[in-house]
């Protein structure tokens, strides 16, 4: 398993991505094969490189299949296909000058070279596509970790039709990474057992490679990738469910320090899945930077896979963990009380220079930088609650621990697993079954969560921050993903920027906050004290949203040409009383027989031009002539008046009262 | 603490009114409010022009705008803008035509623009003033303190009216005894006025605020679609702040119509809230029944620029013109009392949802 449970090493394959030949194995995704092929960069933003990972993987298209928006495929969920040729949007096969430079500097092999300065990373076009298919099920389960699988097994015997949707190409989630507590079964054994039971359940369907993009009421929008006739295909499903269980687990947080998303800086969960599913462990010596015990477990798994863990550095002062003890026994070097300060890329060797500093208060002394091939970062865990919030649930941060909880109630929707706050695998499994019981009106069983005394298993530390005062340092991102909200990383100011820069934005040290944000972004900002608990709840509702395109289905029509008013039949309310209670609509004529525009003001004489002293206004044009709403003092046939407006003035004569005059 | 005025509200209008009362009139003032966090989508705009149709309102703005800019001089929170007003349909065209000629009559620089075939009429003001709400929120507290205003940065306050007529503000760690409380924005009114009173005096308009990811440069940094009431402001980096009455999905189409085709118009934030409006569309000033707080509302984007006149009114220093202007806009349940002041009401425009 540690060498890639998804890939078949007996069946190598190759495909092209942006003209590069990528080698992999049957079972790889486009992303896993690309990263395995030493292409750790996604592109560049304002001069700073960004790592390619599952949260910043561009949609790709099969060459020759670009006409339909459905041709776009997610790299991280699309199976690699032998002989296929993929391109990222906007990629040109013509190399151009920079392409030739890249070729000779080997840049093309280490990055997809997407220019994020010109084109912000966007969610896949599937967010905005109409649906291809409608499915109706009794129960929709989102997430194929232990909680989701357990819910599906429970539903198999009690619910007529169940659909489980898992975004990864396989089920199991992060349970193997987290490991088991004493007396619990090994997670991989639990997962195998649950999968076996589901395989025998004809009323449960499992869609892997599929992501739930949004939930509204009891409808879910699902994007699914499958392979038909050897070609990957993208489909949008609208799933109507009587009940929904959200078992989306937790995502890892990123320690916030300069350079935290450079190529070869990898999140813990991403590193674990690349390694365990595809056999893509960090190459060369790498360090682990963390504040939690799971990182020690990862170090053990990586060590088992012969990956070279140079050192594990923990921001907690005296961390206790069974995994830490095992790691020590395996000879993995570790040091506590260190937090990341910055990481930089050596432009010639592409190696990383990692600078740590003492983590305790006042202990800002730097220690000797480490030169590494890679850095795995882990800032703790955040429940994936976006869908819960979309469904109408609340998200409440704990003022002390800064942890997020899904709160409130949503009719027909339940949370299960670690996203609902359960810790141990056994409790996560029970919570899946309980969610089914609760939603379908059965007596719920009691969940027993297992905890280890903090004396033996230290809780996660606070999210490590290493924010530079120098805003031209590489950015410190608040989260993985496409929002790119960050501290610093500002381009060097040009000569005129100080004069013409955006004053609204320039007062902040944070970037890209005018894009949809993630809960991870907001959680980091909350940890930095940028808003209160109450503000967090409001801001998360308003800003942690799906960055969909606005709908433009309705058309507004142009009705009239300028200058042609509605005439006397529909005098607007805002003219009421303007020229006295007895104002009337009369026709007026101009000496040159021309027409005047609505809104031109009528004065008694030419020596007055104050709009407050106007005694009438042009209100329209009919077959009887130009219509004016006039003060009673001007309502006299043959009365000479001056009409004044934006295009000049002309003399006019008052003719007669308009016959179909309404009450003003 | 004893003050003459306690101004409650979390908009620039509330804060500047408090500052004007203290700085220009030497009154003892508390400002009780907390600005929205800068990450939240905008809920309103402050600009020296808007689709107004009453000459006296334009006169007031013409007089007050220079006073306002002088009052906040040094804060660097204003910018010059050339807002565009557009309409597709009869009612909107009519409104813009009237507004155009009145504003031009008061010396505003305003001209027609042929921006696209989609619009029947578009006019553009030159050299209007806009207040940048986010920088204002960052700088206002210092400015208020310099003006001599006692700053209470919270919205969480309760008001008790005593028999003596004074008002006690509590729940803020201190008691403020105010001769006069001014509820200077909608949120303050919603918090402190009785719901049944609000319902009988005002309309409550559900409103949306959008933040849109950066898009290509628009025809103008400020566009106001008069029929829908949609206002779009484009930041220097291309992001859009949009506020509009929540009429229908049509708002999203209208936003998109101002962005060059080929740009995807992607949501970065969305909020919904309620706006108070008088039933005739004009601003309102005054008390509800026997309750002592003075309510200010319905001013739209230009209210902030009228604060010098409002401060004069509250301190008894208003000019005859200002007195008669605000007297006409006194809060009244019976609209017959508020004659000759009605303004354009986007929500009342028939057919604008088609």
The shape of chain A is: elongated
Helix percentage of chain B: 25-40%
Task: Summarize the largest interface: chains and residue counts.
Answer: A-B, 68 and 78 residues
Low-confidence stretches of chain A: 103-108, 494-503, 561-568
Strand content of chain B: 25-35%
Instruction: Kindly provide the name of the CATH class of chain B.
Output: Alpha Beta
Total strands of chain A: the figure is 38
CATH architecture annotation of chain B: 3-Layer(bba) Sandwich
Radius of gyration from the alpha-carbon trace of chain A, in angstroms: 33 Å
Average pLDDT confidence of chain B is: 91
**Outline of chain B, from the CA principal axes?**
globular
- Mean pLDDT of chain A, to the nearest integer, reads 87
Question: Number of helical segments of chain B?
Answer: 9
Termini separation of chain A (Å)?
84 Å
What is the H-and-E element order of chain B? EHEHEEHEEEHEEEEHHEEEEHEEEHH
Largest sheet of chain A: 7 strands, mixed
Which range best describes the helical content of chain A: under 10%, 10-25%, 25-40%, 40-55%, 55-70% or over 70%?
A: 10-25%
């Amino acid at each position: 398993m540690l060498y890639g449970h998804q890939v078949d090493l007996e069946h190598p394959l190759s495909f092209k991505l942006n003209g590069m030949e990528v080698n992999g194995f049957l079972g790889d995704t486009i992303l896993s094969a690309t990263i395995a092929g030493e292409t750790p960069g996604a592109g560049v933003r304002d001069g700073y490189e960004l790592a390619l990972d599952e949260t910043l993987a561009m949609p790709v298209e099969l060459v020759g299949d670009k006409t339909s928006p459905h041709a776009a495929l997610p790299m991280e969920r699309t199976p690699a296909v032998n002989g296929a040729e993929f391109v990222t949007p906007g990629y040109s096969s013509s190399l151009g000058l920079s392409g030739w430079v890249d070729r000779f500097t080997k840049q093309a092999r280490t990055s997809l070279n997407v220019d994020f300065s010109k084109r912000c990373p966007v969610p896949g076009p599937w967010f905005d596509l109409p649906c291809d298919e409608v499915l109706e099920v009794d129960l929709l389960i989102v997430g194929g970790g232990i909680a989701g699988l357990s819910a599906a097994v429970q539903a198999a015997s009690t619910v007529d039709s169940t659909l489980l949707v898992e975004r990864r190409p396989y089920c199991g989630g992060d349970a193997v990474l987290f490991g088991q507590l004493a007396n619990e079964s090994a997670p991989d054994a639990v997962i195998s057992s649950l999968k076996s039971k589901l395989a025998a359940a004809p009323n449960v369907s499992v869609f892997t490679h599929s992501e739930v993009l949004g939930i509204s009421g009891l409808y879910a929008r699902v994007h699914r990738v499958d392979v038909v006739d050897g070609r990957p295909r993208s489909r949008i499903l609208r799933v109507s469910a009587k009940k929904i269980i959200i078992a989306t687990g937790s995502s890892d947080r990123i320690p916030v320090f300069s350079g935290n998303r450079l190529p070869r800086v990898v999140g813990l969960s991403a590193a674990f899945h690349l390694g365990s599913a595809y056999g893509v462990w960090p190459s060369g010596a790498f360090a682990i930077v963390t504040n939690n015990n799971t990182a020690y477990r990862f170090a053990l798994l990586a060590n088992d896979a012969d990956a070279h863990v140079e050192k594990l550095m923990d921001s907690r002062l005296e961390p206790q963990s069974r995994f830490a003890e095992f790691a020590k026994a395996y000879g993995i070097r570790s040091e506590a009380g260190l937090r990341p300060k910055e990481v930089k890329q050596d432009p010639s060797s592409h190696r990383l220079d990692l600078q740590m500093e003492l983590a305790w208060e006042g202990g800002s002394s730097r220690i000797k930088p480490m030169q590494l091939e890679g850095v795995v970062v882990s800032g703790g865990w955040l429940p994936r609650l976006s869908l819960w919030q979309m469904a109408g649930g609340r998200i409440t941060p704990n003022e002390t621990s800064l942890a997020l909880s899904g709160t409130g109630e949503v009719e027909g929707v339940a949370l299960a697993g670690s996203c609902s706050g359960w810790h141990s695998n056994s409790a996560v499994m029970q919570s899946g079954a309980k969610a089914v019981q609760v939603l379908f009106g059965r007596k719920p069983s009691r969940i027993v969560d297992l905890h280890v005394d903090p004396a033996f298993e230290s809780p996660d530390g606070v999210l490590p921050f290493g924010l530079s005062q120098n805003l031209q340092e590489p950015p410190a991102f608040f989260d993985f993903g496409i929002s790119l909200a960050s501290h610093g990383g500002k381009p060097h100011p040009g000569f005129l920027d100080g004069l013409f820069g955006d004053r609204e934005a320039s007062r902040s040290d944070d970037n890209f906050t005018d894009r949809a944000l993630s809960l991870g972004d907001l959680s980091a900002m909350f940890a930095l004290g940028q808003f209160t608990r109450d503000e967090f709840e409001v801001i998360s509702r308003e800003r942690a949203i799906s960055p969909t395109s606005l709908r433009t289905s309705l058309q507004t029509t142009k009705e009239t040409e300028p200058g042609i008013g509605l005439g006397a039949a529909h005098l607007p309310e805002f003219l009421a009383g303007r020229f006295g209670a007895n104002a009337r609509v009369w026709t007026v004529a101009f000496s040159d027989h021309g027409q005047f525009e609505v809104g031109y003001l009528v004065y008694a004489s030419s020596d007055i031009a104050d709009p407050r002293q106007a005694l009438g206004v042009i209100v329209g044009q009919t077959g009887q002539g130009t219509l004016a709403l006039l003060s009673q003092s001007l309502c006299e046939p043959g009365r000479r008046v001056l009409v004044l407006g934006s295009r000049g003035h002309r003399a006019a004569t008052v003719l007669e009262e308009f016959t179909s005059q309404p009450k003003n | 603490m004893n003050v003459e005025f306690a101004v409650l509200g979390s908009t620039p209008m509330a804060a500047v009114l408090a500052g004007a009362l203290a700085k220009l009139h030497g009154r003892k003032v508390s400002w009780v409010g907390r600005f929205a966090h800068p990450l939240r989508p905008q809920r309103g705009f402050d600009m020296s022009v808007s689709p107004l149709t009453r000459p006296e309102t334009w006169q007031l703005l013409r007089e007050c705008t220079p006073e306002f800019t002088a009052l906040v001089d040094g804060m660097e929170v204003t910018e010059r803008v050339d807002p565009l007003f557009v309409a597709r349909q009869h009612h909107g065209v009519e409104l813009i035509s009237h507004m155009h000629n009145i504003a031009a009559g008061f010396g505003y620089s305003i001209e027609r623009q042929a921006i696209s075939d989609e619009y029947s009429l578009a006019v553009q003001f030159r050299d209007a003033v806009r207040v940048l709400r986010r920088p204002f929120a960052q700088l206002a507290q210092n400015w208020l303190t310099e003006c001599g205003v006692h700053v209470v940065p919270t919205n969480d306050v309760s008001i008790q009216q005593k028999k003596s007529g004074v008002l006690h503000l509590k729940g803020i760690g201190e008691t403020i005894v105010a001769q006069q409380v001014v509820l200077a924005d909608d949120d303050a009114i919603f918090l402190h006025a009785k719901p049944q009173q609000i319902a009988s005096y005002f309309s409550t308009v559900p409103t949306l605020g959008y933040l849109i990811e950066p898009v290509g440069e628009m025809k103008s940094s400020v566009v106001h679609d008069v029929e829908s009431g949609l206002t779009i402001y484009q930041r220097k980096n291309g992001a859009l702040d949009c506020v509009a009455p929540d009429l229908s999905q049509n708002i999203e189409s209208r936003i998109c119509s101002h962005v060059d085709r080929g740009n995807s118009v992607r949501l970065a934030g969305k909020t919904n809230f309620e706006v108070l409006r008088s039933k005739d569309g004009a601003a309102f000033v005054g008390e509800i029944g026997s309750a002592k707080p003075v309510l200010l509302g319905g001013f739209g984007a230009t209210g902030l620029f009228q604060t010098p006149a409002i401060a004069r009114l509250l301190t008894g220093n208003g000019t005859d013109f200002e007195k008669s202007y605000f007297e006409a806009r006194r809060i009244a349940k019976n609209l017959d009392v508020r004659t000759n002041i009605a303004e354009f009401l986007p929500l009342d425009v028939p057919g604008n949802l088609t």
